[in-house]
Design a protein that fits this description.
The chain has 200 residues and is α+β, with helices and mostly antiparallel strands. The protein contains eleven helices and two strands, in the order αααααααααββαα. Helices cover 64% and strands 12% of the residues. Helix 9 (110-117) packs across helix 11 (171-195). 16% of the residues are buried.
């Protein structure tokens, strides 16, 4: 492979590693923009790759077809000459090598598994205003919590939606998701506690 080809394969793999296996299929233009940031806006190969991506040829590459077969499919769908089609075929056959596909399969839900095995420290600081009728009182509370997630934590609708978009999401990203959800819940409960009817 040429230096340019190696760089493109590396960049594409990094995008998939970060955003999940469906990224190139679902966000072809975003992938193209990311490549342009590194390769330059007038790069003929990245422009050709956008055509490759929007024509759904990633699916052909994922299936593990032969380079010659993929090159012919590119020529047919994108109307490129053989030289450009061969180059794109080489890039995507290397990208979707058995080694990479095995690595991606192993990464599927790896972040969730890691998150569920650990204890996590959360800090929450609450603020509300209690209306005493003849004046108001500022109310504060804070807490440090160490929580160990159960398997049920991986079945919430919000997290399932997150994992569906990107099954490679990291344990740290899942932690931040639950931190936000927990703070939102405690903020609401504290607000309810401070503002409820005195005679309730």
């Amino acid at each position: 492979m040429t230096d340019q080809t190696e760089i493109i394969v590396t960049l594409l793999k990094e995008l998939i590693d970060k955003n999940g296996p469906e990224y190139l299929l679902e966000k072809p233009y975003d992938a193209y923009k990311e490549l342009n940031r590194y390769m330059g806006a007038d790069n003929a190969v990245t422009a050709a790759m956008l055509c490759f991506l929007v024509n759904g040829l990633v699916s052909d590459a994922e299936k593990g077809c032969e380079p010659e077969e993929l090159s012919k499919a590119i020529q047919k769908k994108c109307c490129f000459n053989k030289k450009m089609s061969d180059l794109l075929s080489k890039i995507f056959c290397v990208l979707y090598s058995e080694g990479n596909k095995t690595e991606w399969k192993a990464k599927d839900s790896e972040g969730l598994s890691e998150f569920l095995k650990q204890e996590h420290t959360f800090r929450w600081e609450g603020y509300s205003v209690w209306d005493a009728g003849n004046g108001t009182v500022d109310c504060y509370y804070d807490a440090d919590m160490v929580l160990k997630p159960t398997k049920e934590a991986g079945k919430t609708d919000g997290l399932k939606s997150m994992l569906k978009k990107n099954p490679f999401v990291t344990a740290d990203a899942i932690y931040k998701f639950y931190e936000k959800e927990l703070c939102k819940y405690l903020d609401h409960e504290f607000e309810e506690y401070c503002t409820c009817d005195d005679y309730y």
